[in-house]
Amino acid sequence: MKILLTYDISKTKSRTKVATLLEGYGYRVNFSVFELDIKKHKLDILLIEIKKFCDKNDSVRVYTFSRDTIGKSYDLNSKRPKPFDKRSSYVE
User: Fold this and answer.
1) Percentage helix, strand, coil, to 5, in the chain?
2) How do 2-8 and 59-65 pair as beta strands?
3) Where are the domains of the chain?
4) pLDDT tens digits, residue range 16-68?
5) Other CB atoms closer than 10 Å to residue 69's CB: what's the count?
């Protein structure tokens, strides 16, 4: 499943741990936004891990994308990869 995971975590140490964890699962598209192509059971495990670093006022949101939605998604910066494309073609 293709998802966009966003977070707003207040504590720097926790936020860094979540970012590091997510880098092992997907691609950072913004400071606190990751694209993930992940199986449902792995997502469940990942979310359990993320919850360990969250306080009651922190926010973690998961948006699921269909193939149709991904096809309609784009980045205004044409040098960046299309959503959920392999990042080997990424040009900075």
Assistant:
1) 35, 25, 40
2) antiparallel
3) 2-69
4) 999 999 999 999 999 999 999 999 999 999 999 999 999 999 999 999 988 88
5) 12
User: Is domain 2-69 given the CATH code 3.30.70.240 in the classification?
Assistant: yes
Provide the token pair at 9.
Answer: 């975590």
Tokens linked to 46:
């990942």
Backbone phi, then psi, for 36, in 5-degree steps? -130, 135
DSSP secondary structure code for residue 83 in this structure: T
- How many separate helices (H) and strands (E) can be counted in the chain? 3, 4
Q: What are phi and psi of 78, to 5 degrees?
A: -65, -15
If you search the block for the tokens 């359990």, which residue do you land on? Answer: 48
pTM: 0.85
The predicted-structure confidence for 68-82, as pLDDT tens digits, reads as follows 888 888 888 888 888
Element (H, E) at 19: helix 12-23
